[in-house]
Specification:
Elements lengths: L7 H10 L11 H9 L1 H28 L2 E4 L2 E4 L3 H7 L2 H34 L4 H13 L2 H11 L6 H8 L14 H26 L3 H9 L4 H12 L1 H15 L4 H7 L11 H11 L3 H30 L1
Antiparallel strand pairs: 1-2
Helix pairs in contact: 3-15, 4-15, 5-9, 5-12, 6-9, 7-13, 9-13, 10-11, 14-15
């Protein structure tokens, strides 16, 4: 009796049911297959890393080396801490730090409080929120040079709009950029107007994420406007407030564009000389790149130490 024959479909199923023959795995393994599948993504990633390394990491390493070197007629020599001694012995060094700290404090008083207040007002409105968001963010979209030159026109002692307004109400005209007592405040006002749009929109997004039930509970407890802000709004936006506070301190400690264009950098009696402007002077006016790198390294260490301490204290408080 002959064995029954298999139909083509049964034969195919029989072949598929047999275990695959043992053999070596394909060359390269799973990593090679994954790399081949994601070659485009890896290419973009490697390109981004190389750009970041070339434009960010290399300048930082180069600045660290320059801080301990001196270049004389194309010859580079190691000078140790001589550049730091040159910076510390410069009378403008301490004045630049005082002006930078003053700008940071004034910018926090105005630039930190004003965007939050603007966001609170916009959040309470029922109509026109989109138009007001655009209006608030519009100064950020302007080129910084154009915005600063606009304020330079407003501050002009002869035909400036601010003095025209003061004269129309019988108040004395002011030398906004020529008076050492007003020059730094004038720079802070211009900087606040230029940069508050981004912070205001971030605050507004955080405010819109607060549950309305919290405000209703506060109203039932008899809380007024300021108590609701203090006990509901600020605790609910604490993370955003802390993050923007840190970012604003880092940004204001590196101010350069506003004083450079409004007052020429130094200002009357050096009242607007900042640390970054002093770095600019060392590098491009005095051709002392070692001193410029040393001062930049001091600013980097200060901001890095402040950021680390701030993050540690904030983490300990949250725990």
């Amino acid at each position: 009796m002959s064995a029954p024959s298999l139909t083509p479909s049964k034969a195919a199923r029989a072949r598929h049911a047999q275990p695959p023959p043992d053999g070596p795995p394909p060359p390269g393994g799973s990593f090679a297959r994954s790399l081949k599948r994601n070659l485009t993504a890896h290419g973009f990633l490697i390109g981004a890393v190389l750009c970041f390394a070339f434009f960010s990491w290399y300048p930082m390493v180069r600045e660290f080396l320059l801080a301990f070197q001196k270049t004389d007629q194309g010859e580079v020599s190691w000078v140790g801490l001589d550049n730091l001694r040159t910076v510390f012995n410069d009378p403008a060094f301490w004045q630049a730090w005082r002006n930078t700290l003053l700008f940071t404090v004034l910018a926090l008083v105005l630039g930190f409080a004003v965007p939050f207040a603007v966001a609170l007002v916009i959040n309470e409105l029922r109509h026109g929120k989109g138009y007001l968001r655009l209006l608030v963010y519009l100064p950020v979209m302007l080129p910084p040079v154009a915005a600063v030159l606009l304020f330079k026109y407003l501050y002009d002692p002869g035909y400036g709009l601010l003095n025209e307004l003061l004269g129309s109400v019988g108040l004395p005209e002011q030398q906004w950029l020529q008076d050492p007592d007003l020059s730094m405040l004038s720079v802070v006002i211009a900087s606040t107007w230029m940069n508050m749009g981004g912070a205001a929109l971030i605050y507004l997004a955080a405010l819109q994420g607060i549950p309305g039930e919290l405000y209703e509970a506060a109203e039932l407890d008899g809380a007024g406007l300021f108590r609701k802000i203090w006990h509901v709004t600020i605790p609910q936006t604490r993370l955003i407030l802390s993050l923007l506070l840190l970012m604003q301190i880092i940004a204001t400690m590196q101010v350069f564009v506003e004083p450079f264009l409004l007052t020429g950098g130094a200002g009357p009696e050096g009242s607007t000389t900042t640390v970054v402007y002093l770095i600019y002077q060392y590098a491009f006016n005095f051709n002392n790149y070692g001193a410029a790198a040393a001062l930049g390294l001091l600013l980097l260490v200060l901001l890095a130490g402040f950021s680390a301490a701030y993050v540690k204290l904030n983490r300990a408080e949250n725990e």
